[in-house]
């Protein structure tokens, strides 16, 4: 039997690890391909946690994160380090996922080496170069460099076709995050109750744990907010809305895993740290985050991943952004784009908290982002083309 062809799977941030783990595990089953997990280390603190959730570890770690890193320096370091790695190892293909600095620089490095690139979760667009920033620019620059575009939806395919990407390079696979989510939900559900462990790992205050996590039927909202475009006034608005939300609904709690970025952590801790029904907790590992999504009443979030994942668990999402590159969820009704205006946040949260029929309707809508077989489809394409 001929030697397997190496496929380098690149990840630099926690979401990339989550969305590429299912691809890596699927390629492990291939008789013709051998995956190599390459970590750029763009977000060092959260990577080991994400790999560990899937019982994986990177095959090679470039460890490129630096304190206070800016986009210019990080881009240059990834481009050089990944380029050196690819030049030495000469794999048959490189797979990148999403829209981070690691994605753009790794795709460029592979292109410079003449190595074909596959883009997982390709074709997402807002067509506003500054929202989200710099992700919209990253994914638009990556597309012309790629041989394979693995698209989560028909909408993302239409975006690329309008940009004159060849139709035979476009493959609608669904989103790999659903593969990973369903795999992780099975793992979490097979274990005994995780409440105590989650509370300890995330440092959930005892009063919130007792009153909400351990009380069956108690409603609490899962919040994630960290995007650059909300830094400053946007976070002040979000904090104002969250305080107003618990004041207007005395039976409701909020659990908010706060991002490590000081631009997020400082205003959130200062403005929300004194309310016993708002639990400001440590960033959650993927296993614990899936558990939180499965237990919450609904999600208030600016995260792209939450827009994709929570609907598969029957949880509506209020998206605290002005634009989204994931319009399919908005069209399907699983997500609602509401921005960061406090009055709008309060009004839309009120609908879900006070209108049981509307909550039930939105909880039962079909998730447009996939059926859990995206990685299998990616493997099939690569086996055929390499």
Question: Your description of this structure?
Answer:
With 386 residues, the chain is an alpha/beta fold. It folds into 2 domains: 186 residues, Rossmann fold; 182 residues, Rossmann fold. The protein contains 17 helices and 13 strands. The strands form 2 sheets. Strands 3-2-1-4-5-6-7 form a 7-stranded parallel β-sheet, sandwiched between helices. Strand 1, helix 1 and strand 2 form a beta-alpha-beta unit. Helix 1 crosses helix 17 and helix 3 packs parallel to helix 4. The radius of gyration is 21 Å and the shape is globular.
DSSP E strands, number? 13
Largest sheet: 7 strands, parallel
Q: Tell me what the CATH architecture of the largest domain is.
A: 3-Layer(aba) Sandwich
Structural class: alpha/beta
- Mean residue pLDDT: 92
């Amino acid at each position: 039997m001929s030697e397997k062809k190496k496929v380098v799977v690149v990840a630099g941030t926690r979401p990339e690890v989550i969305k590429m783990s299912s691809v890596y595990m699927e390629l492990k089953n291939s008789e013709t391909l051998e995956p190599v997990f390459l970590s750029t280390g763009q977000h060092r603190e959260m990577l080991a946690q994400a790999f560990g959730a899937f019982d994986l570890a990177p095959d090679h770690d470039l460890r490129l994160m630096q304190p206070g890193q800016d986009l210019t320096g990080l881009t240059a370091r990834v481009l050089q380090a990944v380029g050196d790695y690819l030049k030495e190892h000469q794999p048959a293909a490189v797979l990148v996922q999403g829209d981070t600095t690691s994605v753009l620089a790794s795709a460029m490095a592979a292109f410079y080496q003449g190595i074909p690139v596959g883009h997982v979760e390709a074709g997402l667009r807002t067509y506003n170069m500054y929202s989200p920033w710099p992700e919209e620019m990253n994914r638009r620059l990556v597309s012309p460099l790629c041989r394979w575009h693995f698209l989560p939806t028909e909408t993302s395919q239409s975006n690329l076709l309008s940009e004159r990407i060849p139709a035979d390079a476009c493959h609608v696979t669904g989103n790999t995050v659903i593969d990973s989510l369903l795999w992780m939900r099975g793992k979490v559900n097979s274990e005994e109750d995780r409440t105590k462990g989650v509370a300890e790992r995330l440092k959930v205050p005892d009063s919130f744990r007792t009153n909400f996590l351990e009380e069956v039927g108690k409603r609490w909202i899962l919040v994630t907010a960290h995007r650059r475009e909300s830094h400053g006034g946007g976070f002040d608005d979000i904090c104002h809305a969250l305080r107003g939300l618990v004041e207007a609904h005395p039976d409701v709690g909020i659990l908010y895993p706060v991002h490590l970025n000081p631009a997020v952590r400082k205003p959130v801790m200062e403005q929300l740290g004194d309310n016993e029904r708002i639990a400001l907790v440590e960033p959650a590992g993927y296993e614990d985050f899936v558990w939180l999504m499965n237990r919450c009443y609904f999600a208030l979030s600016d995260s792209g991943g939450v827009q994709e994942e929570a609907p598969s668990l029957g949880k509506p999402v209020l998206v605290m952004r002005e634009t989204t590159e994931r319009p399919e969820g908005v069209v399907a009704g699983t997500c609602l784009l509401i921005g960061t205006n406090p009055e709008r946040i309060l009004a839309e949260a009120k609908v879900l908290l006070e209108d049981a029929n509307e909550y039930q309707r939105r909880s039962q809508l079909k998730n447009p982002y996939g059926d859990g077989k995206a990685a299998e489809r990616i493997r099939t394409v690569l086996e055929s083309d390499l």
